[in-house]
Fold this sequence. Notes:
The complex is a heterodimer. By secondary structure, chain A is an all-beta fold. Chain A contains no helices and eleven strands.
Amino acid sequence: KQEVTQIPAALSVPEGENLVLNCSFTDSAIYNLQWFRQDPGKGLTSLLLIQSSQREQTSGRLNASLDKSSGRSTLYIAASQPGDSATYLCAVREGYQLIWGAGTKLIIKP
Amino acid sequence: DGGITQSPKYLFRKEGQNVTLSCEQNLNHDAMYWYRQDPGQGLRLIYYSQIVNDFQKGDIAEGYSVSREKKESFPLTVTSAQKNPTAFYLCASSIVDEASNQPQHFGDGTRLSIL
């Protein structure tokens, strides 16, 4: 059964730093991997989607990579800002289902 | 603007009571989903529907029911059989896409608590 893990559960860094969030999964037979952002008490916003045949996707200051063979994805955030503070979740797609990690709560200190 | 509307934002349930959470979308998406989110855990799928008048159980369907009478609407009923309903409930929709390159879009959620 597919399991998705995000470590660490929480991360606090000073403004301006570059940082990496990690996501690992146990079964490499995925259609895609997605990164989402969730603000407190809110729904989820899709950030990046990487197809299983792709290695990375970029959007602005965000870059997501995918290594299926090792069951890993990273989300790189460049030049972090206080507005980046949120919980970041990754999910892998199997068929029509998404299997979710528990998220990393990110705090950017001004 | 196109999007997903969930209501109410907060909901309280008494013992033995059924409650219904509303989810409406104007994105013209065929697929809709209900997830439950508990602290420290990933989202878990309750039910999903890919077409009107058809829906499938997810991983934690016990104690919940849904209907899909209209493309735009996918209400979730939390029945009295669900003994631990306190959670944050999220509704999502997406294009039915066998190529698997379409993200799911989410509403702002309903927080359900027991009185």
